[in-house]
Amino acid sequence: MTSTEPSGPTTSLDELAAQLREQLGEDAVPWVPDAGYGADRAVRPEAGARFVLVLPRDVDGVQTTMRLASSTGTPVVPRGAGSGLSGGAAARDGVIVLGLERLTTIREIDLLDEIAVVEAGVITADLSTALAPHGVFYAPDPASVAISTIGGNIATNAGGLHCAKYGVTRESVLALEVVLADGNLLRTGHRSIKGVTGLDLTQLLIGSEGTLAVVVAATVRIHPLPVARRTVLARFPSAAQAAAGVGAISRSPVRPAATELLDAGTLADIDAYTGARIADGDNAMLLIELDGYGIEEQAADLVRTLTGAGAAVRVIEDETEAEKLWELRRSSRAAGGGRARLGEDVAVPKSRLAEVLAELEVIGRRHGVRTSVVAHAGDGNLHPGFSMPGVPEDPAAELPAAILDAADDLVRMALDLGGTISGEHGIGSAKQHWLDLELSPDSRALQRRLKDAFDPQHLLNPGKAL
Amino acid sequence: MTSTEPSGPTTSLDELAAQLREQLGEDAVPWVPDAGYGADRAVRPEAGARFVLVLPRDVDGVQTTMRLASSTGTPVVPRGAGSGLSGGAAARDGVIVLGLERLTTIREIDLLDEIAVVEAGVITADLSTALAPHGVFYAPDPASVAISTIGGNIATNAGGLHCAKYGVTRESVLALEVVLADGNLLRTGHRSIKGVTGLDLTQLLIGSEGTLAVVVAATVRIHPLPVARRTVLARFPSAAQAAAGVGAISRSPVRPAATELLDAGTLADIDAYTGARIADGDNAMLLIELDGYGIEEQAADLVRTLTGAGAAVRVIEDETEAEKLWELRRSSRAAGGGRARLGEDVAVPKSRLAEVLAELEVIGRRHGVRTSVVAHAGDGNLHPGFSMPGVPEDPAAELPAAILDAADDLVRMALDLGGTISGEHGIGSAKQHWLDLELSPDSRALQRRLKDAFDPQHLLNPGKAL
Asked: Residue ranges of the FAD-binding PCMH-type domain (chains A, B) (predicted)?
């Protein structure tokens, strides 16, 4: 065994499955696992890859699995709902896929401590549903909220639409319960907002994409539902002006809960997909949500700010219309389907948004690729889409080189502007090849040593994230 | 050299000082360092301890110092302003004290990116002063804000009064520039709110009390100054009822910017110290700051909530009166001086505040010690004071055993209630003996391995925090 490669397993997959079945019960180890358990939404199942799927019923079952994995030297791919967008849960031949989907207990909702204690397999939206009757909510809301799990959100430090105001997943997690590579259970963090005892293992584990330990439960912050909400729609003649509108908000006293930028390409895609007429002749749009006290004052300040930045602004008083607009926004990922397509996820300092948008058009022309953008503009996080309308979508085929080249240009441009190669999706296996562009050799070496400190056998999600 | 103890230096202190003087200039290495540079506000200078004091002018000077330290195996104690309350910057014989106080450049204030880039030695209040003309502010505000540095705040993940709403220091730091043990410079993090590339070294470094690397600069978030502020004063017949008032706020939709609880002992101390008559016959007080939009609505909701919880509530419309109240609150640390005294810093789940307050009185009686409390109640962080009015203050003497025993009882009680031994001051050297009460052997072993990953020679702030 070298220090950087996992040792080969000492037990055959069939023996391993038999042992796990004996210890965890028949139902926890399917005889013929669905190949989909080896994939996520970015990476297809590896052709011919065989793996053992384990779906423990409880934390104890996760510990048993990890004990067996470490005693046999078998690599483990922890998995939430497989909704990841960077291949973080992709399996390869010979591994254990450790699915947390049955750890779905919401152990506790405490309104006085303003926390909930949830198991890793809880679907994020299910937590919101459980909280709503109490008048509280869990803030992180990645677009995948209806299908992704709290554990997966923690593994990727998932973002979403409301991060500029409410923070990313990291800001909502106070404590973790994780199973270490050797099967031991470790509790980190605290149940109060403050706590500074020792190194902050909680924060290091968040976003580590299952490479350091397996998250099995978390103590998360909850907030009172806002006393009011208001949607504001601002139409701009160009994407550059919409970006300038984002800057105008930064210089104003208003801080929206969400500030989504949709460019002409995205608006056209949504219209084609839904039959709505959201584009309405405009070239870019900011769809904004305000919330909290003084909603009229907030809306007035925002309207003044955006009008001054050249927008045609409308405060949406009708809640049904507002909900319809947010639905259209959420449809932007599905819209534009049917053709070969790649969605990216860079973040830049938000003052550079206009430059990214301008350069993206240049990149599209250079490679003969259609581009479109939807951005969480308030935190500088863009999801540019690259597509080739003439090439039909084929999940089994590689993407056209022109698309991959265009994405590569985008990533390099984002880095040149002081940005990052992943705003919220994570590195997984899909973005490994860009890591050295962002991280220095010192940083990467240090990260490998931290990995060694947690997982000396390199069993946990090998080949991902780091 | 063992793996847990630093090797002894291979060069005498005088030779080391001479080499540093040659490389950094005479003025960077004082011939006779003030003994105070070996202490902080919790720990006195070690009698007879000799150390080399280095005050580099720039980042390069910090790198030079660390290179020489690592090549000679000399331990280094990084130091901000020495305002720490847990001995984190205490020096022992034979070390280099690396003071960051001359790294005072505010490199950048960017209103569009909503960030500032500041060097570690910038006094936190000086950053606020620089930001104010732009209509923005840096949120973390430990009580030491006028004397402590950004670097020191980052090293301890400092808290303060506004954390329940604005977060602790951690939530305001996006990126770091640190000097590693070997003298190399490492940049971590990003300039956008989002960024998930690799393990989050920024977050691991925050709160690591100078044991992993030397923070030399940081990119921090800034926020628009609130459009309005309002102070609300709620008087309660007992500390238990004030704690219940905190719970009532948690169940309401209002989230104050600050919620300070002062018990009868603290109110009496403040009155005796300042001549104010803040106690006014009451047994406990919540001093609350609201800010943001809809301030009248917020105040109305808060008044209703606290009146319902049995308080006599007054909204302070007069700004001078409000400022006077906050000044009295800030005086609580100085108040009660002149007698032997210890200020503690535990945090508990905030639903347990009433229990801590009740049990604290029992502890006081048990040990014949006077107790008082001021608490950042909104985040469950209490600063109980233990004093013996009959015993005069003597910085050179050990504290009476009764005080130390009472503090020990408090810490154990806080842990029993699901709390932590330090809410915001850090562990330093002063709280080492309590670490095993909170952290499991697995956690401590893991933290030592992370330390090894950063600092294999164990040169950085040995014997602190971990």
From this structure: 46-225
Q: Which DSSP helix (H) or strand (E) runs through B96?
A: strand B96-99
- Nearest chain B Cα to A160, which residue? B194
Q: Is A256 on the interface with B (CB under 8 A)?
A: no
Report the alpha-carbon angle B244-A221-B215, nearest 5.
110
- In B264-368, which ranges are E strands? 284-291, 312-316, 339-343, 346-347
Strand partners, B372: B385
- C-beta atoms of B420 and A192 within 8 A: yes
Residue B451 CA to residue A199 CA, distance in Å, equals: 9
Residues in Cβ contact with B131 at an 8 Å cutoff, skipping those fewer than 6 apart: B109, B116, B137, B138, B222
Per-residue pLDDT of chain B (466 residues), as tens digits, is 334 444 556 679 999 999 999 999 999 999 999 999 999 999 888 888 999 999 999 999 999 999 999 999 999 999 999 999 999 999 999 999 999 999 999 999 999 999 999 999 999 999 999 999 999 999 999 999 999 999 999 999 999 999 989 999 999 999 999 999 999 999 999 999 899 999 999 999 999 999 999 999 999 999 999 999 999 999 999 999 999 999 999 999 999 999 999 999 999 999 999 999 998 777 999 999 999 999 999 999 999 999 999 999 999 999 999 999 999 999 988 887 889 999 999 999 999 999 999 999 999 999 999 999 999 999 999 999 999 988 999 888 889 999 999 999 999 999 999 999 999 999 999 999 999 999 999 999 999 999 999 999 999 999 999 9
* Both structure tokens of A453: 């400190």
Residues pairing with B382 in the sheet:
B346, B375
Query: Which has the closest alpha carbon to A232: A250, A216, A249?
Result: A249
Is there a contact between B112 and A184 if contact means CB atoms under 8 Å apart?
Answer: no
Q: Report the gap between the CA of B142 and the closest CA in chain A (Å).
A: 12
CA–CA separation, B49 vs B30, rounded Å? 16
Here the ipTM equals: 0.95
Q: Which residues between 131 and 160 in chain A have a beta carbon less than 8 angstroms from any beta carbon of chain B?
A: 135, 156-157, 159
Strand locations in B100-171 (E) = 106-110, 115-119, 136-137
User: B381–A190: do the CB atoms touch at under 8 Å?
Assistant: no
Q: Evaluate whether B54 touches B10 at the Cβ level (below 8 Å).
A: no
Asked whether the beta carbons of B72 and B52 are under 8 A apart, the reply is no
Domains in chain B and their CATH numbers?
A: 106-224 (3.30.465.10), 229-330 (3.30.70.2190), 339-425 (3.30.70.2740)
Residue of chain A minimizing CA distance to B188: A443
Tell me whether residues A111 and B188 touch, CB distance under 8 A.
no
**Is B192 in contact with A380 (Cβ distance < 8 A)?**
yes
Distances (CA, A) of B167 to A252, A391, B154, B299: 22, 48, 13, 22
Q: How many Å apart are CA A175 and CA A326, to the nearest integer? A: 32
